[in-house]
Amino acid sequence: MTTTRPRVAIAGMSIESSTFSPHRSGWEAFTLRRGDELVAHYPFLADGAPLRDAAEWIGVLHARSLPGGAVPAEVYESVRDEIVATLRAQQAEHGSYDGVLLDIHGAMTVVGRDDAEADLAAAVRAAVGPRTLISTTMDLHGNVPRELAQASDLITCYRTAPHEDVWETRERAAANLLARLRSGGAPKKAWVQVPVLLPGEKTSTRIEPAASIYADVARVAELPGVVDAALWVGYAWADEPSCQAAVVVTGDDEELIVREAERLARRYWEARDEFVFVAPAAPYEECVATALASDQRPYFLSDSGDNPTAGGAGDVTWTLAQLLAEPAFAGVEEGGAAVDVGPRAERGTRTADGASPSDVRRQTAIYASLPDADAARTVAKAWAEHVAGAEIDVEAGARVDDGPHGPVRLRGVVEHVSEGDPDAGIVAVVRIGGLRVILTERRKPYHLERDFTSIGLDPRGTDVVVVKIGYLEPELYNMAADWMLMLTPGGVDQDLLRLGHHRLAAPVHPFHNFEQEPPLRPHLL
User: Fold this and answer.
1) Has residue 503 been placed in a domain?
2) pLDDT digits (tens, 9 = 90+) for 233-274
3) Which residues constitute the domain of residue 308?
4) Nearest to 505 by CA among 129, 258, 241, 172
5) 3-class secondary structure, 495
6) Residue 373 lies inside a defined structural domain of this protein
7) Same domain, yes or no: 390 and 420
8) Model-level pTM?
């Protein structure tokens, strides 16, 4: 038991990596934080926060990236080796750590390696020794192989999807660590994998059965004799043997934690066929037709197959190519550039192919977004030379993932260009008829209203807003009058069977048939 203020290191590496995307998440994808900058990154460690003075917090190294493709081995190994070297050097100078807050995602894939986070946790354990408590905090879309659970004394994950408890979960991991340092030491862990692998859009805690199951997880965590309870749904867009759901219940009452872990695992298994998409889901044609016919505005459509926050490359052009051909978003061609026909334009405007049907009503749309560094720079140059109203004709997209569709031609008017976005770099808005395409230098998810309004767009006053995302994040969800999930192709295709997993630890639902019920008996670690 520690009687003085404990010394706690903070370290980790966080990314969600789709093995079905050709993208590679190199150094350019990661934000590195060390020392005081890393400690200050956690709101619950701000000056005056209850946990701030409860320990001496030492920032080692944390590398964070937006979801993307697999991480090159040299990038991962460099981060891991710096963490280990720093831990060892600081211990040699100041003595052993009492604890480590290990901040990871759980769905990182490293080229040529399985279970990278388990390797990282094992390396940290080797560096700090068996007596230092390691508390691991994760995303619920991560995977938990036995080796990761074994290397962690405490381990937890989010309980909401969308993730509205990100910082709450990390704070819980830190608070549990401090509590066990004060008394109790390392608890027991009841760990069990559940052979089910579903996309996050089918396991959202906004709806049943996940809503009730995760409420039960929270209930178990509050039982006497339990320190924490966690349920991971796994990461569906990687093809590794550990990709499946998992349950860990941590505590001192061995009989209780084993019983509750098995009960949670069985409950998840038994509900496997009850999970449905969090919104009406359909192919592109049905979604767009529904949105155009609806009087609900703004109507959001989720281009889910290339969701950059699930690991998609972000530059798949398949959906945008269809939108560019939609008569409802087309403008009247004059002098080689498309002219905006304005919101809620009247019926009878000429369609893109020259016809004049009376049943086409012009509508406005936003597409967020398409990354292409060269195209964004070309548009920025045209803007600098001509400012507002510059005409542009540029090919963009499909530089990384050209599987579903090649580059698209953006022939329209530049309405906005800004530089210095921390995620996207250059951001340009190109108007093509009633469609406004957000073109970026680098991948960026569009989750907040200010992401649009800061570049001169009004999503609330737009008919149809198409975002590369899965389930809508809270601000967009609250803004949308209605929405649908478009089942589109890409590296994070919602049709998992279409992706071609072949390395899962079979059998896993829904990829394989089960000849008998899985045992689901937890292992006491």
Assistant:
1) no
2) 999 999 999 999 999 999 999 999 999 999 999 999 999 999
3) 281-493
4) 241
5) coil
6) yes
7) yes
8) 0.91
